[in-house]
Write a structure and sequence with these properties.
Layout: E1 23-25, H1 45-56, H2 73-76, H3 82-93, H4 115-135, E2 140-143, H5 164-174, E3 180-184, H6 191-196, E4 203-210, E5 234-239, H7 245-263, E6 267-271, H8 289-306, E7 311-314, H9 325-336, H10 349-359, H11 387-399
Parallel strand pairs: 1-2, 2-7, 3-4, 3-6, 4-5, 6-7
Helix pairs in contact: 1-9, 4-5, 7-8, 7-11, 8-9
Length: about 400
């Protein structure tokens, strides 16, 4: 591993407008090596199909992907213990010997050859993206291979080996950032990132997820709101199973804009797991692609409103790897590059033919699920009879006072 994440390619100032810096797209074919094997839900095909779709739609026209070296041991140690790093290294050399120690070699996170190097590679990409944002070399950056939010200091979990988000945020703090916000819209609680900064008032973590009463990892309740001087900086919106577009977007509106406005981050890091979709096989929320796309627009706008435009967007979960993830993350790339796609845009014939040939299934014909992605703003009033409103109010009451906000307003 190299001493630091470093450029191994170039980046064109694509997506710049109104005098703002350009946008970095982090990509390397080596990311496809993050592969737990046949039948595992975390299939690298979702990354390949995303980049193919984005390219064929012209989203990546003129973009020179930025490549990074794998993060070295010093960087990884910003979020992981030495014993854990040694365990991952051994598993990458001798996968068959992995026995579940530190969560490596389980059905959840099987060992595979070179897993240490491949996992360090996506961390290096997120770190390099963060460094360039902080230096002003880029305005936004996207790493769809990142967002491994379940990895803990000494434990792999939820298909996540190294926590690239936690390492990238730690690197920003090391470089002098005083306030970094992390917003996680994956269907699962962003437990690993929250744990890394639970007592650090410099980092605000916000997670909108299906309640831990019905979904892994069983955490992320409103009362888990930070410790000591960081009280109020861990913000958890635990939503009932079955929550759909209008209620999810209303919950987002009720919590994310006010806490970001109050915290005033210097950088916004976001995780965009696409497993909140109604057809995802591992969870129970009911979002459409259109609501997911709307959340990307909202986070983009919030980055400009409250973080000086510095926005690092990461991938994450998503296990409907043909119909959902490629379309969702192509929209994410398009929005970050200031090239938003009309949702009614047809998926390109070449991409559809590739999917049909490789998977023997008919892919979606358009970049939309045909849903309006509208919602009733929180400002129109709280409904105590609505389960989602009650969940939202529990969050507001748990954290708003510590942030100097009124939960009733």
């Amino acid at each position: 591993m190299t001493a630091t994440a470093s450029t191994a390619g170039g980046s064109a100032p694509v997506g710049a407008h109104d005098g703002r810096p350009g946008v970095d797209v982090m990509w390397d074919e080596a990311f496809l090596g993050y592969d737990f094997g046949p039948g595992h839900p975390m299939s690298p095909v979702r990354l390949d199909l995303t980049m193919r779709l984005a390219a064929e739609l012209g989203v990546l026209d003129g973009v020179v992907p930025l490549r990074a070296e794998p993060a070295d041991a010093r960087l990884l140690a910003l979020a992981h213990s030495a014993d854990y790093l040694d365990c991952v290294h051994r598993a990458g050399q001798w996968p068959a010997a992995a026995d579940g120690t530190h969560g490596i070699g389980t059905d959840d996170t099987p060992a595979f050859a070179r897993m240490d190097e491949v996992s360090a590679h996506y961390v290096g990409a997120s770190v390099l993206a963060a460094e360039r944002l902080w230096a002003g070399a880029a305005g936004h950056a996207v790493n769809i291979a990142g967002g491994m939010h379940h990895a803990l200091s000494s434990e792999a979990a939820g298909f996540c080996v190294y926590n690239d988000a936690a390492v990238a945020i730690s690197r920003l703090l090391e470089l002098g950032a005083e306030r970094v916000a992390y917003v996680d819209v994956d269907v699962h609680h962003g437990d690993g990132v929250e744990a890394a900064f639970y007592d650090d008032p410099r980092v605000l973590t916000v997670s909108l997820h299906e309640s831990g009463t019905t979904l892994f990892p069983g955490t992320g309740f409103p009362a888990s709101s930070g410790a000591g001087a960081a009280e109020g900086t861990a913000v958890n919106v635990a939503l009932p199973a079955g929550t759909g577009d209008a209620d999810w977007l209303r919950a987002f509106d009720a919590v994310v804009p006010p806490v970001l406005a109050e915290f005033a981050p210097q950088v916004l890091v976001s995780q965009h797991g696409a497993d909140s979709h109604v057809s995802d096989p591992l969870a129970h929320l009911a979002l459409s692609l259109d609501a997911q796309r709307r959340s990307y627009e909202l986070l983009h706008d919030l980055a400009h409103a409250h973080a000086g435009g510095r926005w690092l967007a990461l991938g994450g979960g998503g296990y409907e790897v043909v119909d959902v993830v490629p379309r969702a993350w192509t929209h994410l790339l398009a929005i970050a590059l200031h090239r938003p796609l009309d949702p009614a845009t047809p998926t390109p014939p070449g991409w559809r033919e590739h999917v049909q040939h490789r998977f023997g299934r008919t892919p979606p014909a358009r970049m939309t699920d045909g849903c309006p992605a509208t919602y009733r703003p929180w400002a129109e009033g709280y409904d105590p009879d609505a389960p989602v409103d009650r969940a939202v109010m529990a969050t507001r009451e748990a954290v708003f006072p510590a942030l100097g906000l009124d939960p009733q307003l």
